[in-house]
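User: Can you help me understand a structure? I only have the sequence.
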Amino acid sequence: MSKLFVIRKEIPKKTYTLLITASFALLIAAWVVLTEGGFIKAIILPSSRAVVKYIIESALNQSLWRDMGISFYRILGGFVFAVLLGIPLGILVGTFKVAEAFMRPLCEFIRYMPVPAFVPLIMIWVGIGEEAKMAVIFMGTLFQLIPIVADNIMSVPDDLINAAYTLGANRRQSIFKVLIPGFLPKMMETLRVMMGWAWTYLVTAELVAANSGLGYSILKAQRFLKTDAIFGGILVIGLLGLVIDRTMAFLNKKMFPWYDGVI
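Assistant: Let's start by predicting it. Here is the structure, written out as tokens:
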């Protein structure tokens, strides 16, 4: 047993998988016992049967697939734009001190501002269409992404840059042949984290004059205290996020097999 608690020591893969299964099993078991045993009222915590029934019914009447599709479209749009802008800016901030001095304090300032407070302004700036939902996700992820990408770039050892200069590389070659390849594995981990942020901003994004989407379905259910629908929507978002996260982790391992920082 003591071998399982050695600091940063790897454990057998079977044990790791068993612990993952056990954590989910215990959570589900506690949920079933608390609700089916009558320890908690359904208005506070719906039963697992009610939530599963809601998800199945929503899937059969196509509303679940429709909401999943539109929510994923909104998240993908806002996330892709944030990545296309945030990664180059993060590379600049992490590479050149002049860019760090100019942009990093500003990003640190903006990223602590509450994105929901910008919703009325976003509606004025871009209207109430799909662009507004994407803009909320874009703002929520962009200014979180830039400082983390900069830190990823700065984590590439200076020795590699000095070695490149010694071998005759110029500044451009050092950036594109050393810095960028060196930080790519960590960048994939950063994108996994940012995708989580994007999903958390989904409900906020779908406050903007939405009539569809997973976030909207949760907010609509709140008005009528339909806790089974609330938990069903939350559960679906969690499952989608888990699938996306594990997919990105798998791709990272395949693309960068030498890197062991991905769990």
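Now, to help you interpret it: The two ends are 22 Å apart (CA to CA). The chain has a mean pLDDT of 86. Let me know which part you'd like to focus on.
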